[in-house]
Amino acid sequence: MRPKRKTTLSEVIRWRRVTRGYSLRDVEKLTGMTSAAISQIETGHTKNPSFQSVVKLARALTLSISSLAEIVS
User: Fold this and answer.
1) Residue 65 contacts residue 9 (beta carbons within 8 Å)
2) Quick check: 35 and 27 in contact, CB under 8 A?
3) What is the pTM for the complete model shown?
4) Of 11, 12, 47, 70, which sits 20 to 30 A from 4 (CA to CA)?
5) Dist. CA 19–CA 5, nearest whole Å
6) Which of 61, 36, 38, 62 is nearest to 50 (CA)?
7) CA distances (Å), origin 8, targets 13, 15, 26, 52
8) Domains, the chain, with CATH or none
9) Handedness of CA 19, 37, 39, 68 (dihedral sign)
């Protein structure tokens, strides 16, 4: 039996955006971040996004900060 792989912050953010039916442009408008920056976070190219960016994404995607903190801890 293989151990379960840990879900990453980038996966959760992308999953939530897609399940909400939001495009990158939609989230750009909601957060004030560029769609390029959001994409970089979602693909894992930005390994450690700023706390401010995570808060903006959490608010836009109606995710709790505490649930995101559990993912990255």
Assistant:
1) no
2) yes
3) 0.86
4) 47
5) 21
6) 38
7) 9, 11, 22, 18
8) 9-68 (1.10.260.40)
9) negative
- Taking CA atoms, 6 is separated from 26, 48, 71, in Å, by 28, 16, 8
Q: How far is CA 12 from CA 1, 6, 17, 61, in A?
A: 24, 11, 8, 10
CA-nearest of 4, 73, 72 to 13 is 72
Amino acid identity at 18: V
Helix or strand or coil: residue 22?
Answer: coil
Question: In this structure, which amino acid lies at residue 8?
Answer: T
Token code pair at residue 8: 């990453």
User: Would you write out the chain's pLDDT as a tens digit for each of its 73 residues?
Assistant: 555 667 889 999 999 999 999 999 999 999 999 999 999 999 999 989 999 999 999 999 999 998 888 876 6
